Amino acid sequence: MGIVSGLPEGFNAASYDVIIVGAGYAGAVCARRLVEACGSKVCVLERRNHIAGNAYDREDEAGVLIHEYGPHIYHTTDDRVHQFLSRFTEWTDYQHKVLANINGTLMPVPFNHTSLKLAFGEEKGEHLYQKLVATFGENKKVPIMELRQKNDPELTEVADFVYENVFLYYTMKQWGKTPDQIDPSITGRVPVFVGDDDRYFPAAPHQGMPAEGYTKLFERLLDHDLINVFTGVDARDILSVTPEAVLVDGKPYGGDVIYTGPLDELFNLDLGALPYRTLDMVFETLDMDQFQPVGTVNYTTSEDFTRITEFKNMTGQVVPGKTTIMREYSKAYEPGSGQTPYYAILEDETRQLYQAYRDRVKNLLNFWVVGRLAEYKYYDMDGVVASALALSDEIIANR
Ligand code: FAD
Ligand code: UDP
User: I need a surface site. Which of 75, 203, 250, 387 has the fewest CB within 10 A?
Assistant: First the structure.
């Protein structure tokens, strides 16, 4: 039924079958599934003044389509996710490529055959590559922490180079910790690639950009007679939970609530704040057609920022004489400061704290948590969509 800014006079949340907190992937996918499968009347509350969560894009003053909350490249191996999203957008065939600026030389990341030759010279690089092929096989992904464990002087030389020049400084900037100090699955997202494929997501059969942008995709996803979206509304103003019930406007609510925000916020952080990293994103529009050769350049041995993204290189948009780039500066998130919690910090202690919050809602049969924030996970877009599809399956089956 549309997207409205603020709550209209006489708004009655309790008149909806489902209340969804957050209009990112998690919330929007659940909304669509529940109206289509159950004919539920759904209300989506979003505290930002726009839909699409962190995938939100818009044209800036120069007319360049930018990603307000960091570069978003769609990629998935999940056919169900792809089929679902493809109902709401066409895709470009963009294949994301990243170069690392290593002491002034640009090398493909994930570190691959080409990078080896650039780093070690043609002959030695080829020799080391053949060693990697003999050890791991061709077109294989090898996480850096696994490569570092190999007890072979030549493999150690490669591992040391990649660790020092690709991972160490970048990870220090991004997480404030060394790669040894963070969960290995994080650096494992960008494994050494024993092959020539220089795409950032070599395994993803479906990748690209939504042809008209992410916000347009969300407009279609949420465009349904039974879905009302209210932006600029913090759900906590009308919704709260007790151990026994979900309260809306102070009264027990009988419908389903799907919550996609940070779980600790629901309880005023009373067990302590879940830690996150946030980013300062600094945009700059330049009077030139193109600034850098690829979508993203990672600065792995220098600079205070982690990476520079040039949006036109990803979207394929043509804007003569102008281009917009964005630098990302990572820092610790301070709750209550108005910053955005972008990355959960996954450690044993933080997982336990999350679980303690999660336990508080486990007996509420009509309260569901889903999404990167609410599940406190390092999800890509496709992972969130998969999780939202699975949750909606469960809710639909219960009805
Ligand atoms: P969100 O998009 O965060 O949406 C949650 C929404 O809930 C927010 O809009 C928030 O305002 C709202 N909300 C929270 N609390 C309340 C409340 N109390 N009341 C009302 N509203 C509330 N994934 C990829 O696949 N490819 C990429 O290239 C990629 N790049 C990324 C780059 C960066 C810098 C970041 C941070 C993430 C990136 N991701 C990428 C991941 C992607 O952004 C997420 O997986 C996805 O957007 C998460 O969707 P979500 O709905 O769970 O959360
Ligand atoms: N990473 C790195 N150097 C790089 C690329 C990635 O050290 O050039 C590490 C870093 O710790 C980063 C993690 O690998 O946080 C995951 O990288 P990815 O590009 O997947 O991060 P995202 O796009 O989610 O910020």
Answer: 250
By most ligand atoms within 8 Å of CB, the mutation choice from 67, 171, 177, 309 for ligand 2 is: 171
Cα gap 186→343, rounded to integer Å: 11
What is the band of 231 on the pLDDT scale with cuts at 50, 70, 90?
very high
Q: Is 221 in the pocket of ligand 1 (CB under 6 A)?
A: no
To which CATH superfamily is domain 2-51+222-270+343-397 assigned?
NAD(P)-binding Rossmann-like Domain (3.40.50.720)
Q: Is any ligand 1 atom within 6 A of the Cβ of residue 213? A: no
pLDDT digits (tens, 9 = 90+) for 234-266: 999 999 999 999 999 999 999 999 999 999 999
* 8 Å CB contact between 201 and 73: yes
d(CA 379, ligand 1 centre) in Å = 9
Q: How far is the CA of 17 from the CAs of 221, 226, 228, 229, 327, in angstroms?
A: 19, 10, 12, 14, 42
Sign of the torsion angle spanned by Cα atoms 174, 180, 184, 188: positive
Q: pTM, whole model, 2 decimals?
A: 0.98
Determine the atom of ligand 1 nearest the C-alpha atom of 372: 52
pLDDT per position as a tens digit, 169-201: 999 999 999 999 999 999 999 999 999 999 999
User: CA-CA distance, 46 to 37, in Å (whole number)?
Assistant: 23
The domain locations on the chain are 2-51+222-270+343-397, 59-97+199-212+276-332, 110-194
What is the rounded CA–CA span in Å between residue 366 and residue 45? 17
